[in-house]
Amino acid sequence: MNGSLYQSVRVKGRVVYVTREAVNHLSEVEAVIFDCDGVLIDTRKSYNTTIIRTACFILSRLVGFSLPQRVITPSIIHTLRCSGGFNNDWDSTYVILLYLFSCLPKRFLERFRQVHREFIEGGGSALEWQTQFGQLSHQLRGYVERRRIQEAAERIHYGLSQFVGPADSSGTPALEKILFAKQQPVWKMEGLRSFKTFLGYPDNSAHSLLATVFDEIFYGPALFEQAHRRRPQFYLGAGAIENETPIVTRTTLKRLADMIGRRHLGIASGRGTLAIEHTLGRWLDYFNPKARVLLEDEELRARGDIEALRTERAKPAPYALLKSARAMKTFKRALYVGDSAEDLIMTGRANAVDPRYLFAGVTDYGYDPRRKREMFAEAAVDLILPSVNQLPDVLRISQAKG
Fold it and tell me: How confident is the model at residue 128 (pLDDT cuts 50, 70, 90)?
């Protein structure tokens, strides 16, 4: 850690790093806005699990046998998140699926395109996932050898690791350019286009197979039906959301509310209300309802071009942070507490509009805490915390000095 840039403070037995410039600014903080995943809620055993299960489920149903889950590892998902362009886990699942599909044999991709086209031209609805899966699985049987996929698992994993490496803050377009490059053979390009249509990406409604399977696995049957007002079609087991636990404590929220007032506590997150309420419960009452900007809720209510909406509102666009802050009316400075590259970029873009935002990076609830701490230090963020639960003490110390 750069000693000339940061000074360290020990809080509850853990070291917190504050830039020397930010020491005085923290004493002016009158509003705190939080990311949710990895900050308020420990999602390490929910979202990663859902990404892997969704990708394996869809491909396994198509090829007719189970794919080795070791092909998709947490490090691959972590690389996507560190790029600054994959805050939405549907996007991560999509690019992983697209790459894995591209690894299947030529005869499989050609047959897939033919059967998919025949289904659509025959009047098949995009909503008839069970029928479409059944037809595709039956007519694709024998076009991929299980033995060859098992033998190639390590090579495919390595290729996927290399594929996600160039990911950047533009999100899926950067990686789509690689797979849809002009030098790709026509059969592969056409197969990938058919597969993207089959997935229903980037839609997030009942028209999207990817979003449907993902949410069924994440929520489980009861919560899925509550969220989407339709019954699950594919997955009836316990939702991965049941693996989540709160990171933030009630004591932390109460102390922050006592210090700056509940009106000045907000959330700017890609998650939806149902998922947050399921894990945090009544603790959500500590936050200003008007300052809770939850992008999944907005997407589910939206009509029209979902891709354009995401470009405008999803992190790292500053939309959610600015909207949350506006609900608080007046403040000298606002602190955004996040745990990812998207959160950091979003705060920087918000500062380009209104230069009153500070950023705190939380490190301990991701794939690699040391790497995350180094990323934040290299970016010279204002504050680096092991956990959100150190925040009340840091603000108290700063206010005493101020």
Answer: low
